[in-house]
Amino acid sequence: MSGAMLDREKIIEVKDLSVDFRVKGGNFRAVDKVNFHIYKGETFGLVGESGSGKTTIGRAIVRINEASGGEILFKGRRIDGRIPPELDREVVQKIQMIFQDPMASLNERAKIDYIVSEGLYNIRGFSSEEERLALVRKALLEVGLLPEFASRFPHEFSGGQRQRIGIARALIMSPEFIIADEPISALDVSIRAQVLNLLAQIQRTKGLSLMFIAHDLSVVRFITDRIAVIHLGKIVELGDTEEIFSRPLHPYTRSLLQAVPLPDPRREKGKKSIPYDPSCHDYGTEGPAWTEALPGHFALGNGAEIEAWTGRYGAAPMPKQK
């Protein structure tokens, strides 16, 4: 975790982002008018259940999924839709993604040397073969792998080692922003902490900005500065990590937190589950709006809900801007 952030420059801005997919009988909206920004040097968590749209947002930022509406800005420049070739090259280099499945994200027919170097080949990011080999060696060492592993194939490695190779593939591009898409969900529990510690160390030492996508709130608490909670394509809550954990507002967020297992078997046995029921919202007279309910703490709800949610903690909602 990066601690106090002195530089509040926004490296990523997502404004009213929508992403649609064509399905039989029409379009399916996977992401619906999402708004958030990520500060330079920050680790930002995006949390939600499977199918909530979090991976779709990450893939839209790296230009894999096409945005149907809204804007995505990288360092103040719009990167969705058609962009100039020089900006596209910069995005390819400066924004990298670590994929969820380390078994499927590596080309089984290629050696690690080529896999780690593939991005460099695409942007011609080296002047000689000696320089490329030196960059591969450095990237492997940075993720705790031996340089001689470069001559091997992916099937010779464990899941944790494969994920380290995926991280090395991202680092070799000297990125400024990395999207880590559920990077530990496919790994054994015994090595998840190792990969999390590696990502936290890399983010801290290199001053990178990181978006960490996950479905497990207990994981993002360890590594993130702020958290956005997404449900069915809409962000329902956003705030500082400890603020979200200590004062969750939206019922969906509280449901996710209740699902986090407790290390004490007795407390875990006595814990009551709180399933999220969308029918708990009454939007017949007043619909939901994205509101700063508490300082720096945003939630999706109508006026009555915001007042009730904040009142639970003995706090008054923020006054509405005129």
Report the CATH architecture of the largest domain. Answer: 3-Layer(aba) Sandwich
Q: What is the mean pLDDT? A: 90
Flag low-confidence runs: 1-6
The biggest beta sheet is recorded as:
8 strands, mixed
Strand order of the largest sheet: 6-7-8-3-9-10-12-11
Q: CATH homologous superfamily of the largest domain, by name?
A: P-loop containing nucleotide triphosphate hydrolases
Radius of gyration: 21 Å
Helix-strand sequence: EEEHEEHEHHHEHEHEEHHHEEH
Number of domains: 2
Structural class: alpha/beta
Q: Quickly count the helices.
A: 11
**Content of β-strand:** 15-25%
Report the CATH C-level class of the largest domain: Alpha Beta
Q: Would you count the extended β strands for me?
A: 12
What is the molecular shape?
A: globular
Helical content class: 25-40%
Give an overview in words.
With 322 residues, the chain is α/β, with parallel strands linked by helices. It has two domains: 10-247, P-loop containing nucleotide triphosphate hydrolases (Rossmann fold, 3-Layer(aba) Sandwich); 250-322, no CATH class. Helix content is 34%, strand content 25%. It contains eleven helices and twelve strands. The chain has helices at residues 54-61, 85-94, 112-123, 129-142, 159-171, 189-206, 217-223, 241-246, 251-258, 265-270, 303-311; strands at residues 10-23, 26-39, 43-47, 69-74, 77-78, 95-98, 177-181, 209-214, 226-231, 234-240, 289-294, 297-301. Helix 3 packs across helix 4 (129-142). The longest helix is centred in the middle third of the chain and has 18 residues, at 189-206. The protein is globular, with a radius of gyration of 21 Å. It starts with 9 loop residues before the first strand and ends in an 11-residue tail after the last helix. Mean pLDDT is 90; it is low at 1-6.
